Amino acid sequence: MLKRYFLNNKKRNFSTASIWIKGGSDVDSVGKKGINKILSSLLTRGCEGFNNFTLSEYIESYGAELNQEVFEDGISISIKSLNEHFSKLFPLLDLIINKPTLLEIEFQKVKKSSINFIKKDKENPFNICFENWKRIVYSNHPYAFNANGSANDVSLITYEDVLIEYKNFKSRDKYLISNNLEINGVCTETLEKKPLEEKSRSINHNLSPNNRFDFNNNNSNQTIIMMGDQTCSRKSSEYLPLKVLESYLSYGMSAALFKLFREKHGITYDLGVYYPIRSGNAPFLIYLSVSNKQALFAFELLSTLWKNLLLFPLTDAEIFLAKEKLKGSFLLGNQSLDEILQRKIQLISYGISPISEIDLSSKIEGISSLDILKLTNKYFSKPFLSISGNEKICLEISNNWKKTF
């Protein structure tokens, strides 16, 4: 069933429509990790009345864009064009979703491309470190796996497998959102406010440091460190307090990570916080990369910072600045219509009614330092650590890790 929503937005000279299909790589079956990435790519390579080339030519002839992407929780397919051409292009979304050609020759191309992309991804030690972190944090949960799949699984996926997956795809909930209110034959739906659902989780306090640690030897002069844990769903009331913490740690040059690692000690190449929107328990991790000679010192700094987050609430000045930066980031995210539509339709698919900027600001203002301290102790007292670097350095960090956490 396709549910339609429309955004009351200022008149623009272009229109965009996006369909969110509930279920992405999280519904990949065992042994077929990457099948929904293949299916998503295949959907946009031909539909009723168009083969791969004529579809591309038709879209390009109007200067339009067709995009698709697979996430852990869903698949996004969108089309964008100038207003005067949109009525000719919008029907393509229906054809792509409901009447794709799914040709075997295109499947072979997509499959080969997927394998090559996954192999290329594995050449980056940062990606390897992140994949290892997800594996030990999420174990056999769908979030433990790359949305693009694994090379071994993809190599074994057959054309028949994809046709079967498409049958499953057709029965999934689908949500369409657009800024164009003049599409013929459609009606708007109002959003019902629903109570936020709290998703239960098991805190990993019973796991030993050995089971919360992994490393790989990258034989380079760079050491990559990632530390964190799974937290809550976007549906949870804990989401915004954790966003304030993310803002405190990583937003701008006033952020705690920047001031500690770059301004005070000047030792990092890259650092930040990864905290994406998820329908299930989202990952929250601090990542940084340093030279091998600075790796042990960097881990000591990170450990001290982590312990302080568990022991001491943010000061009034710190939480005020973190809130202001967070509100500013939400306003920045509202400058792009594509971002607005993508975010709203994703939230709708989670069962969340998007709230106004005034309500959002009010919720942020109501968050206290003690709220954040409570959550750091709930989620981060037994963090998971993944390192990519020189084996000797990794083992030294491991020894310190066992003593500290």
Describe this structure in words.
This protein is of the alpha+beta class. It has two domains: 2-178, 2-Layer Sandwich (Cytochrome Bc1 Complex, Chain A, domain 1); 209-404, Metalloenzyme, LuxS/M16 peptidase-like (Cytochrome Bc1 Complex, Chain A, domain 1), CATH 3.30.830. 46% of the residues lie in helices and 17% in strands. It has helices spanning 35-43, 52-61, 83-89, 91-98, 104-121, 125-138, 151-156, 159-170, 239-250, 256-264, 295-311, 316-333, 337-349, 357-365, 369-379, 391-404; strands spanning 2-6, 14-22, 65-70, 74-82, 174-178, 213-217, 222-230, 268-274, 283-291, 384-389. A five-stranded mixed sheet has the order 1-5-2-4-3, sandwiched between helices. It has a five-stranded mixed sheet with strand order 6-10-7-9-8, with helices on both faces. Strand 8 and strand 9 form a beta hairpin. The chain is globular, with a radius of gyration of 23 Å.
